[in-house]
Write a structure and sequence with these properties.
Elements lengths: L2 H22 L5 H24 L1 H16 L2 H33 L7 H24 L4 H6 L5 H7 L2 H15 L4 H27 L1 H23 L1 H27 L3 H7 L1 H10 L2 H14 L5 H6 L1
Helix pairs in contact: 1-10, 1-13, 2-9, 2-10, 2-14, 3-8, 3-9, 4-11, 10-11, 13-14
């Protein structure tokens, strides 16, 4: 069975077991709490942490190799402009579609008071921290200056992705400009680092079906159908908007700009789709995206790593 099929099976098994536990025993039952605390939760977190563990070295190695592999710094600049324009364009289309959908449907009105209170009790602290972080991260000249990291090791420890990206860009550009024999030695080292990180990702993906099942079990065993029913309209709206964006917006881009069949494209990236859906983490999905891009889509490593 293919990996993405195993992950999808784990997702379904975790959801079925979680909902069954919620309905049959209740979220407060000692057995449900025990399984979530000592089995499902730890397995899910180990899977997530293994993926997140390699994000920083993966980003550094991929970007540095991408820039060094391109060779010409001017070509890197052209690729960067195209990448940025593509991201801004597709983001604007997705944002507009999302705002239009939520404006027309207003899904938040369907959440019951009891479910709202339960969600607030469980997630208020995390939500408040994210809101405070968003408010404190106002864009300005200091933001641009802050991208230039003082200490790349500290940036890696603090999860400062922009700092690592900038350091990777500078490192790769410098590698492309040094003496040929030393450039080859450094490129070989970066390739070895990328291979090591990819191997760790393979380790993580071996437990992915179990990790996904554990993550989904934890959510469904706590909330069961109460959350799913109350948020059904919102979930349905999100899925419908995502489906519309993927099939229409992205489908047209894939067909008209790239010249590839959308069906063929989405079939080849199933592993990325399932990983993203089950982990809800772009950082955790990044390693899978890069591997799928290189192995399933045939994108050159230097382009895939840079983008």
């Amino acid at each position: 069975m293919a990996l993405h099929s195993k992950i999808l099976l784990g997702l379904l098994c975790g959801a079925v077991l979680g909902i069954s536990a919620n309905l049959g025993l209740g979220p407060e039952h000692w057995l449900v709490a025990f399984v979530d605390r000592y089995l499902a939760g730890p397995v899910g977190q180990v899977f997530l942490r293994m993926l997140q563990m390699v994000v920083m070295p993966l980003v550094f190695a991929s970007i540095a190799l991408g820039v060094a592999g391109v060779g010409d710094v001017r070509r890197v600049g052209r690729m960067g402009v195209k990448t940025l324009a593509y991201f801004l364009g597709t983001t604007a289309l997705a944002t507009g579609l999302g705002l239009l959908a939520v404006r027309l449907v207003e899904p938040g009105l369907s959440v019951s008071a009891a479910t709202r209170d339960k969600l607030l009790a469980d997630y208020a602290d995390k939500a408040a921290a994210k809101i405070d972080a968003a408010h404190s991260a106002e864009f300005g000249i200091d933001t641009l200056v802050g991208i230039v990291t003082r200490n790349p090791i500290a940036s890696a420890v603090d999860g400062d992705m922009l700092g690592i990206i900038f350091f990777g860009l500078m490192f790769g550009a410098a590698v492309s400009m040094i003496r040929a024999d030393r450039r080859q030695a450094m490129t070989t080292w970066l390739e070895a680092l990328a291979d090591v990180v990819t191997t760790i990702i393979d380790f993580a993906m071996r437990i992915a079906p179990y990790g996904v099942a554990g993550l989904i079990f934890g959510v469904t065993s706590r909330f069961g159908f109460a959350l799913l029913a109350s948020l059904g309209l919102y979930v349905g709206l999100v899925l419908a908007a995502l489906l519309l964006h993927a099939t229409v917006t992205m489908g047209l881009i894939i067909r008209l700009v790239i010249g590839v069949s959308p069906l063929r494209f989405f079939t080849r990236i199933r592993a990325s789709l399932v990983t993203a859906f089950s982990t809800s983490s772009s950082s955790a999905t990044l390693p899978t995206n890069i591997r799928v891009g290189e192995e399933r889509l045939g994108i050159p490593p230097q382009v895939c790593g840079f983008v």
